[in-house]
């Protein structure tokens, strides 16, 4: 009873600490992003365009408040960002927050689909290849994983477009009108993510299957399938859960390239368009949202970790 | 007396020779090192020597010779890999593009490696507040959407090769820092470091003579991973138009230029991607192999 309460307290303290840390990281990300966008060149000049007169550039600098000192600009922006007001786009009529609310679900959905597909394929393959390390199945799967890791995702996307879109004509080449548009990008994301998940499952399973408790369970005469799935896989999954969360963050963060290839109107595409139009309020907001999403995922993954593995809370 | 000394040193030489033979066998017995290493050397040679062997210049344009197909789909041996939309020899551009990709990759890991290793060692060696600051810094870096930031900086500052290397270098240091920190942490309280400290060696001297040589293997493995990463991200940036600029040949840029002709000349896209895949594959295999040989505990991870 007493120790249970103490453990609960430790957990609360752990959660609070991780939360504060995530918040601090997010604030730091927003500062670094803000400074990088303004320090790498003359933003007003970029907004005005290369052929703009000096007077126009000066007017834009004044109108958008780009003449103020950096800390002042940041604090004004942050003050509004806290209330959910991320400013106005220089191109779209909508608020930046509205734009992001429209585009974020598309990118998140695609990322979740890709991760889901990767888990669906990667977990069984990793488990099966761990049963006989260095057997023929293991070697084939490892080779596929190594090849999958070596392919640049945007190139793989174009290859799939050539094969399924142009040569076979099965699937649409670009756009975001129906579910068919999501098949190829999901496949690319899955192929890019699967190797990591598969390798991690495999190495985790190899360790678990060697462990004493698995040998005991086997000696007791439990069925091999139930030993593998109920005992070993459950423990091998702990690191996979942590990596899966981080991978989702990476998928969403890397959406710029893939959404451009497939013409999907998600957050990445929005960022890409906005960069090329010097629509910096949007770029700023996307950096913040992606950074926030990553922080959220690592926070959740830390929590899951702490629940699954009590030793972590003690530290 | 002289005879015994002679034979003793002979035995020593024999064991040294046997050890060396054993080490060579260990390296050559690893399929990752052999396959990845030879593929990597082959690519290095091809990009270093290749451009001098190809008779065409990668910048020579010719409107009458545009979009010639490669030799296996009805082209001539004059342009083995065909020509691009401006009539430039695709083989020459591939080889020059590889040279550029490797140059960008090596420069990037140099920048990232020096930066990441320095702060990683400091964090692991000094611990305390420095360690906390570095760990926080790593978390911030990981939470930043790297490709997006790189694109935005390249747009605002105007794309150039120097900028590309600097931006990539400052975005890819995290793994160097993580590994350097963790391994330094393990070494910090080892006997030889404590002994060196007791003898009055300065921190800088201990780091340089006792710590750095001992974490070099792990750093080399990270360097191979990051080399592959740098090549892939640089290609993605060039593909999006904010990395290497035309008319320079670069694999990512070549894929972007070939996108318009995807229907009738798909080789414009498949060939540079295949080249990139081979390079990344070679580097990854080599890295895995080096890790397996130098750190047998982590085998197969």
Query: What is the 3D shape of chain B?
Result: flat
Strand content of chain B: under 5%
Secondary structure tally: strands of chain B: 0
Major beta sheet of chain A, specifics? none
Can you give the mean pLDDT of chain A?
83
Amino-to-carboxy terminus distance of chain A = 22 Å
Structure, explained:
Chain B: It holds the Pfam family BPD_transp_1. Chain B: Belongs to the binding-protein-dependent transport system permease family. Chain B: Its main location: membrane. Chain B: This is ABC transporter permease. Chain B: Residues 98-287 form the ABC transmembrane type-1 domain. The complex is a heterodimer of chains A (315) and B (301). Chain A has 315 residues and is an all-alpha fold. Chain A has 14 helices and no strands. In chain A, 41% of the residues are buried. The model of chain A has no long low-confidence stretch (mean pLDDT 83). Chain B is an all-alpha fold. Chain B has one domain: MetI-like (MetI-like fold, Orthogonal Bundle). Helices cover 74% and strands 0% of the residues of chain B. Chain B is built from eleven helices and no strands. Chain B has helices at 2-28, 31-53, 90-126, 128-143, 146-157, 161-171, 174-188, 191-198, 203-239, 251-258, 267-294. Chain B is flat. The termini of chain B are far apart. Classes of the chains: A mainly alpha (315), B mainly alpha (301). At the A-B interface, helix 1, helix 6, helix 7, helix 8 and helix 11 of A face helix 4, helix 5, helix 9 and helix 11 of B.
In short:
The complex is a heterodimer of chains A (315) and B (301). By secondary structure, chain A is mainly alpha-helical.
Supply database-style keywords.
heterodimer, A: 315 residues, mainly alpha, 14 helices, flat, B: 301 residues, MetI-like fold, 0% strand
Walk me through the topology:
The complex is a heterodimer of chains A (315) and B (301).
Chain A: H1 2-39, H2 43-48, H3 54-63, H4 70-82, H5 96-131, H6 136-150, H7 153-167, H8 180-210, H9 212-219, H10 224-253, H11 255-262, H12 267-276, H13 280-308, H14 311-314
Helix pairs in contact in A: 1-13, 5-6, 5-8, 5-10, 6-8, 7-8, 7-11, 8-10, 9-10, 10-13, 11-12, 12-13
Chain B: H1 2-28, H2 31-53, H3 90-126, H4 128-143, H5 146-157, H6 161-171, H7 174-188, H8 191-198, H9 203-239, H10 251-258, H11 267-294
Helix pairs in contact in B: 2-3, 2-11, 3-4, 3-6, 3-7, 3-9, 4-7, 5-6, 7-9, 8-9, 9-10, 9-11, 10-11
GO cellular component, one term (chain B): plasma membrane
Organism (chain B): Bosea caraganae
Main location (chain B): membrane
């Amino acid at each position: 009873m007493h120790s249970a309460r103490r453990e609960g307290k430790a957990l609360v303290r752990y959660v609070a600490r991780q939360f504060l840390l995530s918040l601090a990281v997010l604030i730091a990300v927003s500062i670094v992003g803000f400074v990088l966008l303004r320090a790498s060149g003359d933003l007003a000049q970029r907004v005005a365009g290369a052929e703009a007169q000096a007077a126009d550039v000066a007017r834009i600098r004044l109108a958008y408040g780009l003449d103020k000192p950096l800390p002042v600009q940041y604090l004004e922006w942050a003050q509004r960002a806290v209330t959910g007001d991320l400013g106005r786009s220089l191109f779209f009529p909508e608020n930046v927050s509205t734009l992001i609310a429209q585009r974020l679900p598309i990118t998140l959905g695609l990322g979740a689909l890709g991760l889901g597909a990767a888990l669906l394929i990667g977990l069984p393959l990793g488990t099966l290849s761990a049963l006989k390390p260095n057997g023929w199945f293991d070697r084939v799967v490892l080779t596929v994983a190594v090849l999958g890791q070596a392919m640049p995702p945007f190139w793989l996307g174009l290859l799939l477009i050539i094969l399924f879109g142009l040569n076979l004509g099965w699937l649409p080449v670009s756009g975001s009108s129906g579910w068919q548009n999501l098949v190829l990008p999901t496949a690319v994301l899955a192929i890019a993510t699967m190797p990591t998940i598969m390798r991690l499952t495999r190495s985790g399973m190899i360790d678990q299957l060697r462990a004493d408790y698995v040998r005991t369970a086997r000696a007791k005469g439990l069925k091999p399938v139930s030993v593998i799935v109920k005992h070993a896989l459950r423990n091998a999954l702990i690191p996979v859960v942590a990596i899966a969360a981080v991978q989702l963050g990476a998928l969403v963060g890397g959406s710029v390239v893939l959404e451009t290839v497939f013409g999907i109107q998600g957050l990445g595409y929005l960022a890409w368009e906005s960069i090329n139009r010097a629509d910096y309020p949007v770029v700023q907001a996307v950096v913040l949202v992606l950074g926030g999403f990553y922080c959220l995922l690592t926070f959740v993954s830390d929590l899951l970790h702490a629940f699954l593995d009590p030793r972590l809370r003690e530290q | 007396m002289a005879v015994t000394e002679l034979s003793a040193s002979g035995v020593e030489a024999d064991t040294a020779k046997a050890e060396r033979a054993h080490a060579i066998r260990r390296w050559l017995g690893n399929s990752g090192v052999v396959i990845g290493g030879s593929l990597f050397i082959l690519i290095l040679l091809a990009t270093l020597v290749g451009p001098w062997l190809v008779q065409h210049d990668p910048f020579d344009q010719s409107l009458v010779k545009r979009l010639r197909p490669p030799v296996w789909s009805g082209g001539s041996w004059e342009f083995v890999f065909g020509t691009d939309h401006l009539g430039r020899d695709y083989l020459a551009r591939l080889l020059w593009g590889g040279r550029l990709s490797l140059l960008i990759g090596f420069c990037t890991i140099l920048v990232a490696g020096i930066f990441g290793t320095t702060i990683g060692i400091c964090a692991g060696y000094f611990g305390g507040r420095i360690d906390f600051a570095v760990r926080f810094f790593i978390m911030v870096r990981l939470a930043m959407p790297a490709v997006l930031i790189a694109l935005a900086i390249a747009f605002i500052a105007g794309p150039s090769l120097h900028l590309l290397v600097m931006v990539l270098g400052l975005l890819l240091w995290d793994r160097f820092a993580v590994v350097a920190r963790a391994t330094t942490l393990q070494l910090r309280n080892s006997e030889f470091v404590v002994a060196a400290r007791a003898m009055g060696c300065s921190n800088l001297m201990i780091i340089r003579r006792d710590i750095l040589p001992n974490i070099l293997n792990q750093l080399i493995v990270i360097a191979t991973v990051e080399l592959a990463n740098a090549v892939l991200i640089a290609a993605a940036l060039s593909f999006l138009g904010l990395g290497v600029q035309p008319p320079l040949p670069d694999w990512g840029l070549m894929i972007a230029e070939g996108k318009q002709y995807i229907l009738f000349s798909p080789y414009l896209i498949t060939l540079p991607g295949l080249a990139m895949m081979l390079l990344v594959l070679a580097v990854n295999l080599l890295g895995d192999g080096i890790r397996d040989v130098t750190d047998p505990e982590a085998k197969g991870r």
